[in-house]
Each structure stands twice: as C-alpha cells, then as structure tokens.
Design the sequence.
C-alpha cells in the first residue's frame, strides 16, 4: 500500500498520484475532505474537493488558488490513481476520499459521523483495503443522543429562558456546527440572531441550497435593542468578551461532544451543555470499521492508540498514526 498512501511530515501523501490528502502545510496539489481549516489549509496551489463544499472553500481560500470539484461518486484519474468522494456526514461538503491504484483501495474518512443531519448528506460505507479513521471521541464514554432529542432539549431551554425574560446565547463552531444547530431550532419561539462568523457560514450554506431558518446578523442592529427572548448563535471565543455585554441578562450554553464528560460545562463556564458532535462517537466508529471491513486500519487524531488497541483485540490489523496537527481555528467537537 506504500504506493497508494504514506504518512509524511506534511500529512497523508499518495506517491503514485503525487498529491496530499488534507496536507498540513501548503503543497502544489491538495485533495481535501472538507472546508474546516485543519483539513483545507490555506496556500495550496490546487484544491480538489467534493462539489457541495465549493462555496465554503471559495469563501475561505485565496482568490489565486485553483479549484476542481467532483460530485459525490464521480471519479477522476490522477497519474493512474482513481480518486472519488463519498459523503462523510460531518458538515456540508464533507467527504471520504477513495483512492484506487492497481487493484488496491484506500479510504481517508477525514472527519465524519453516522446518522442524520439536515444540513449535509449522510455518511455512506465504502469498502476498502485500507481505512484511515479519525478517533476524536474514541472512548466508550462518548455516545450521542438521537438528533431530534437534542434539538428538543435546546428548544425547551430556549422557551424557558424566554419566559424568564432573558436572552439565550448558544455557542458552536462557526461553520458546520452552527448551521446544524440552526436547522434544529423552532423559529416560533423567538427571533434568531447570529455572530458575524456564523452568518458568513450561513450565506455559503444557503447558496448551496441548504434550508435554514431566518437569521439576523447581530452587527446589523444599531442603538438600544431588547434582546430578551432571543436566541443568539455565537462562536465559543465570544464567551466572556466585551461583545457579550450588549445582550444584557443572558443564559449561555455550549454545544459540543465534550459536554458528555462531567465537568466540561463547568470548565467552559456556561449555564448549560448540550451534547452535539459532528464526529463519530464510540459505537459509530466501531460500526463504521465493521461496515467498511478493511484489511488494515490507520487511526488518527484523538484517542488513536486506544482505538487501535481495541481493534487489534478484535482481530484487526490496526495502528495509530500521526497525520494532522490541530489549529486554533479547529472546531470544538
């Protein structure tokens, strides 16, 4: 498999094709799984990605970069390597990268999750010889609730806060997480406002055809304003900042997979924690490996050694690898 995929200081490299998958530094040719900046690095000369991610990537990358986009399931040959994208379910445009060369198939999942998400296509299993999987939440303690149950909990919290005459501020990553949160909100409860970074992501989602409830950019409100009963979707870095003062009396909440661990909410200094993650939980990770049924599994990012050891105990050829470096702009799970 060394001709098909190798680990290098710059990330996963396909020697036969002469390209990197989610490179860690600028390279000539990058195949990217999705538009988060720890996967789609700024400064590459050429980007190849799944078609639904076009607006997001063009929003975040230099105008000098060259882009090529493929529909899910379509393929392109790069120096004899057949490359195709398949839904990953992580966020809009997220994809698993399938590489085929001389009868061998490798799949790089990028970030992914199983189950429904109203803002993107659901993950699909892809049979392969080598599977590269993330393990952000690769411990048995991480188990997600059904999508609708979590959405109902958030809406119930909003109603209760509205009845108290306070403003809700819900924190989530600007692109991906925030749009998923928005899709689950009940607009009949009150008005929905957004942080500027969130609204920018909303624009790209709407251009791609994703339906979201009506939102108002916080920065468009001038002078004194009554924020009571409103829902504000903001980025985590806004918590405790001067920007928050305008909302008056608020209740705050964080939406993240890390909220599954006792004490995480306290460390974030928020009133509520909702377990919402765009990554696979423990049972879904194991299920994904079983469905793809690879000969070899490379486990990266997160609890990679723990997951690899568990898979080995299950009789699989598995190993932990180091394929990516986190950035300050990464999502919060």
Sequence:
């Amino acid at each position: 498999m060394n001709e098909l995929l190798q680990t290098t200081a710059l990330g996963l490299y396909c020697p036969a094709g002469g390209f990197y998958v989610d490179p860690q530094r600028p390279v000539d040719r990058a195949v990217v799984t999705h538009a988060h900046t720890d996967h789609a690095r700024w400064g590459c000369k050429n980007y190849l990605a799944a078609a639904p991610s076009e607006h997001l990537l063009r929003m975040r990358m230099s105008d000098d970069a060259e882009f090529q986009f493929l529909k899910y399931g379509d393929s392109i040959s790069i120096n004899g390597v057949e490359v195709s994208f398949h839904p990953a379910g992580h966020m809009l445009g997220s994809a698993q990268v399938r590489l085929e060369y001389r009868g061998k198939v490798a799949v790089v999942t990028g970030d992914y999750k199983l189950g429904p998400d109203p803002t993107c296509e659901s993950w699909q299993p892809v049979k392969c010889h080598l599977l590269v999987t993330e393990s952000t939440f690769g411990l048995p303690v991480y188990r997600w609730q059904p999508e609708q149950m979590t959405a109902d909990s958030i809406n119930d919290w909003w109603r209760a806060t509205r009845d108290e005459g306070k403003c809700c501020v819900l924190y989530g990553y600007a692109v991906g997480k925030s749009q998923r949160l928005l899709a689950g909100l009940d607009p009949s409860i009150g008005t929905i406002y957004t942080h500027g970074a969130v609204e920018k992501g909303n624009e790209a989602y709407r251009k791609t055809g994703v339906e979201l409830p009506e939102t108002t950019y916080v920065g468009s409100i001038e002078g004194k304003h009554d924020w009571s009963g409103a829902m504000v979707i903001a980025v985590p870095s806004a918590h405790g900042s001067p920007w928050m003062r305008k909302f008056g009396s608020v209740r705050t909440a964080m939406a993240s997979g890390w909220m599954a661990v006792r004490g995480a909410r306290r460390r974030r200094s928020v009133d509520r924690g909702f377990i919402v993650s765009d990554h696979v939980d423990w049972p879904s990770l194991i299920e994904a490996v079983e469905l793809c049924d690879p000969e070899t599994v490379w486990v990266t990012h997160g609890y990679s050694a723990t997951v690899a050891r568990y898979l080995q105990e299950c009789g699989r050829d598995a190993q932990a690898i180091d394929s990516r470096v986190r950035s300050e702009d990464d999502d919060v799970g």
The chain has seven helices and 19 strands.
